[in-house]
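Late entry, evening session. Most of the bench is empty. Finally got around to the prediction I had been postponing all week. Sequence below, unchanged from the version circulated by S.P.
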Amino acid sequence: MLHLLNHPLAAHILTRLRDQATPPETFRNLTRQISLLLALEATRDLATESRDICTPLEKTSARVLARPLAIVPILRAGLGMVEPFTDLFPDVSVGYVGLERDHLTAVARNYYRKLPPLAGRRVLVLDPMLATGGSAVQTLDVLRAEGATELALVCIVSAPEGVRAVEAAHPAVPIFTAALDRELNASKYILPGLGDFGDRLYGT
């Protein structure tokens, strides 16, 4: 269920995201760019239905999206991925799950949750870094409990350990990512990775 973004522009953007010399303003812009490519990839199979419309010249049958879409960024880093989805899908519903990683245990603590109705929607979880997979699995568990049945995970950089954790807990959930990196280090950071995504996004 792993889908790797295969696009030369994505590779170029990812290189600039990895570079420690990239300043926060540029990092945020690059995050929007690569999130746009991921948004297109993660929604290429959305169902459509026929609708009659009138062009300036005649009546015709055209395709429109058949089902509503929801996105759930994991705070705080996931916020950097939201804008391309709301630009592409103006009717999208946006929920939020706030998780904070303990830097000693690498276990995430849930501190905030605000979700729209999820039943009947395609729900995309936005998490830039899939490291241990703990935050993603915890969020997917929450969304399942809230009635979501069609879920996908959208990440920028993933570690094999995180992919395995998600696949073990939610084997039917596809993972869309721009990169599958080598491994986690002893502190549970992705290698080669790009550091702490939230810190680099917001200059903290």
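Two things to note before I forget:
DSSP finds six helices and 13 strands in the chain.
Residues 2-202 form a domain with the Rossmann fold fold (CATH 3.40.50.2020).
Will write this up properly tomorrow.
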